[in-house]
Structures are given as C-alpha cells and as structure tokens.
Known about the structure:
This protein is mostly beta strands. The chain is 0% helix and 52% strand. The strands form two sheets. The chain has a four-stranded mixed β-sheet, with no helix packed on it. A four-stranded antiparallel β-sheet has the order 4-3-6-7, with no helix packed on it.
Amino acid sequence: xxxxxxxxxxxxxxxxxxxxxxxxxxxxxxxxxxxxxxxxxxxxxxxxxxxxxxxxxxxxxxxxxxxxxxxxxxxxxxxxxxxxxxxxxxxxxxxxx
Length: 97
C-alpha cells in the first residue's frame, strides 16, 4: 500500500492528488497531531494498512470502496471512522480527539 506522511510545517502541506485518501489528525480544539497509529480495514474485514503517520497528514492510495479507519494517539486514546473512497478524486477524513 502506497502512503505518504507529511504536514509538519506549512510548506509541506501540499495536495497530492494521486492518493485517493487523505487522513488529517488533530486535537478537537488545538494543534495537528503527528505519530498517530493508523489501521485501515476493508469492508470484507481484511486489514489493508497498519502504519504510523509521522506527520498529521497521511495520504493513502486505496482502491475505491468502503473502509474502517482506526487511529491511535501516543497516549493510547483511539478514534475510528467509516470512509467511502471514491473511484476518482480524493476523500479527506478528518479525525479529531
């Protein structure tokens, strides 16, 4: 699975349209979060990604479909969401704690 972790510093927050999913991790009322564990599971239950995002933006090249995204901060608190990745374009998923 092709991924790109970025977003540390405004100069690195540029679009990457060749990825179908952008996951943005942040505090609900505060800064962006880096070093978040990310697991993505396809609708059939198969885990397709298990990684750590070094920056607050994680771009993922996924085929179109429905996925469950589970994100875990360094302090162990987790957040999950369902996302539908389109056949064309990029879906943005914002996860806030």
